[in-house]
Write a structure and sequence with these properties.
- It is built from 13 helices and nine strands.
- It is an alpha/beta fold.
- The strands form two sheets. A six-stranded parallel β-sheet has the order 6-5-4-7-8-9, sandwiched between helices.
- The chain is globular, with a radius of gyration of 20 Å.
- The mean pLDDT is 97.
Length: 284
Amino acid sequence: PSPMSAAFAALSHGRILQYHNVTPARFFAPYAPSLFRLASIARDELAGLASACDLALGDSEYNRQELEDLGFTRTGVLPIAVNTDRLTNAPRHPVLEDILDDGLVNFLFVGRIAPNKKIEDHIRLAEQYKRYIDAYYRFIFVGRYDVVPQYYATIRALLSEYKMLEDRFIFAGPVPDVELAAYYRASSVYVSLSEHEGFCVPLVEAMAMDVPVLAYSAAAVPDTLGGAGVQFAPKDLEYAAELLGMLAFEDSPREEVLAGQRRRLQDFGDPVIQQRLAAVISGF
C-alpha cells in the first residue's frame, strides 16, 4: 500500500496501471502478521483503483485476468522488458566458477526466500532426488533470505529434520550480476516450485543463460514460459525428481528443451516489447 495510490486516483486523465501482482496475504499468515496485514491492505487498495484507471496492464495474462476480476474495465498485457544482456555479457568469475565446478550437479533458484516461493518443496525435492536419482547434487538459492525471518528459520529446521548435508544447500543472499551470471552458468537446471508468481523474471533470465527450466505450472509461470521449459502439475515431487534427473543427464531431451526456450526467448526481445508498447500507446 502507498500514498501514491490516492494521488494517482486523483489525476483527471492519463492514468495507466502496470500490475506485477501482490502476493496473496495467506502465504504470510503463519510467519509474518505484519506482511499479512500489508498484503491485505494492498489488495484492497488495488481494487479501489478499478474505477480510477484509464488503462490497466498486467505483465502477464494471469495478472490481466486478475485485474479484470477486480472490476478494471480496460485491460491489456505488457510483459516486463528484462535486461538479460547484464547476465549474458557479464565477465567471467573464475574463483566462483572453480568453487562450483567440483563434481556436484548444481540446481538453481533465484528470488526472495518467501513463503509463496515454496522453498520447503525444494528441500523435499532434494530428498526425492538423492533417494532415487543421484547423491551428488547441490541446490543454490540466490536472493534475500531476511524478508520473512521466521520462514527462513523453518527452512533451516527442515534441512535439519531431513539430515541434509549443509554444504549441499547454498543460500547466497543477493549478489551482483557478475556472480549471478556465474551461478547460472554453473547450473544444470533452473528449478521453480513457486505457487504464486505475477511474471517471474528469473525464468526469462534462465532461458537467456541457456539453462533448462523445470517449473511447477502455477499462477503466471505458464504465461511466462509459454510452453517452453518442462512444466508439471500436480506437484508430485517424486515425478519432479525424475524430470530433474532427465534434464541434468539426458542430452537429447535437454537439447530439445533448450531449443524450445531459445524460441520462446525471442518473444521477450526488444523489438517485440517495443511493438507491444507502441500498440498500447497508440490504442490509448
